[in-house]
Amino acid sequence: MELLDVDKLIEEFESMTKDAGNVQRETLKKILEENGCAEYLQNLGLNGRTDPESFKACVPLVTHNDLQPYIQRIVDGSSSPILTGKPITTISLSSGTTQGKPKFVPFNDELMETTLQIYRTSYAFRTREFPIENGKALQLIYSSKQSKTKGGLIAGTATTNVFRNSQFKNTMKAMQSQCCSPDEVIFGPDFHQSLYCHLLCGLIFREEIQFISSTFSHSIVHAFRTFEQVWEELCADIREGVLTSRITFPSVRSAMAKLLKPNPELADLIHKKCLGLNNWYGLIPELFPNVKYIYGIMTGSMEPYLKKLRHYARDLPLISADYGSSEGWIGTNVNPNVPPELATFVVLPDIGYFEFIPLKENIEEAKPVGLTEVKVGEEYEVIITSFAGLYRYRLGDVVKVTGFHNLSPELKFICRRNLMLTINIDKNTEKDLQLAVEAASKLNIEEKLEVLDFSSHVDLSTNPGHYVIFWEISGEVREEVLEECCNCLDRSFVDAGYVSSRKINAIGPLELRVVQRGTFQKILNHYVGLGAALSQFKTPRCVGSTNNEVLQILCNNVVKSYFSTAF
């Protein structure tokens, strides 16, 4: 297996970003030539034109809702070219939800290739700063099951579709980034058992581990929190060379049996190191002496985990992984030595066609600008045109342009435009909160009472963090009814990331806090006091910890509090 040529990859990236404007035009041309026969584009009257001006004049800005009917026909098995020239055979399930269901997003070979391109590019910049030897990686990755849609297409989360692709493994080998765990562990049917085996494999190969990674920083923190609970059991397995009975799946057991041999010296060493730590500070470099860095998505909703990750990592560099979504990739981290809180991502001009809606103007009237036309310091919503059938698709992400790398902008991720509640891989919008409150408040109907107003908060002061829902109710409600309302709220968040995190207690039980009458009036008074127009006042549906005064009003007026027992 030939290793990647780091200098050549960086050179290609540099020349491409120096010519970002032309590369964008060529990329759009290529996308439209490959997919011009697709029904969606045919209906818009492009008639074979591939220039940006005609494209913008003919093709409207869309959201996932607009494309849903087309995607549904693909999911149901229609083989005609609907969104792409070549048939789509795989669907990605996004972790975000639309109206209470995971979104279906087309996935194809072209999208896989852009994924590997992003991986290779960021690897080149990482390796230049932090060279690694030809060892192994402790990759805390888990693949959910792929299923078949009604129409026979393969459906899975975006990461699963990538991990299960044959090219993924070859690229990892070329990047000296082979996972130390066997496939049976990555694709194991039980998250807890896979995590235990990942940790065990890491310890067996501890001298060879060059870096530790996962899709999200939350998963890395979760893994080492688990290590604190199971380290003695791991040591026993290594000492005896026999796998604990907690691993029940035969395929996983037999794969691990090939790696596990009695090694009392290693067991004693790990045992001694663990006992020598103060509150597990610096755990990672103690266990893995040759690790060069820790790598994963650490921006946005992952930032709250950095404090704990640094506790485990001591002075090891934390490097934030690339910027993308289930719909497609956008940018790569070319400054790996910058702390994750300051990470920016340079857009790759050949992996899609990008436009940006300026946010300082009225969003309905704002005209999107091209990749090379954005201004430093401004915030924009990202619009993506991909090789996988999305044209002028509003991603819903807000980014800030922090500078340029040659002629391609450097973006800092700010937030999801419509994202409200998120702790790790869960993503719940205002709409999801609304649906949950509607479902639970129906239980009050028999009591002839209503929920007058509501808000929410992500409480990260507990470990694990949990959702808090604030309710103002029109009268007294019986305890057992409110307990059931609390459980109903918890069950009503159907986002796959939330449900799976709740099941493994990576997110704690939802808390319902009932506030006294008049609380939301106090919030309104607070905003009006700051100069807000009464006619435009909207109750904040999610109150962040930065909105301290409103959070104080809510918390100071709580009269009852309930925790869910739904999971």
TrEMBL record:
UniProt keyword Protein transport present: no
Coiled coil: none
Protein name, per record: Jasmonic acid-amido synthetase JAR1-like
Annotated GH3 C-terminal domain residues: 431-546
Residue ranges annotated for the GH3 middle domain, each copy included: 345-416
GO molecular function: acid-amino acid ligase activity
Family: Belongs to the IAA-amido conjugating enzyme family.
Keywords: Ligase
Family matches, as InterPro entries: GH3 (IPR004993), GH3_C (IPR055378), GH3_M (IPR055377)
Lineage top rank: taxon: Eukaryota
Cellular component GO terms held in the UniProt record: cytoplasm
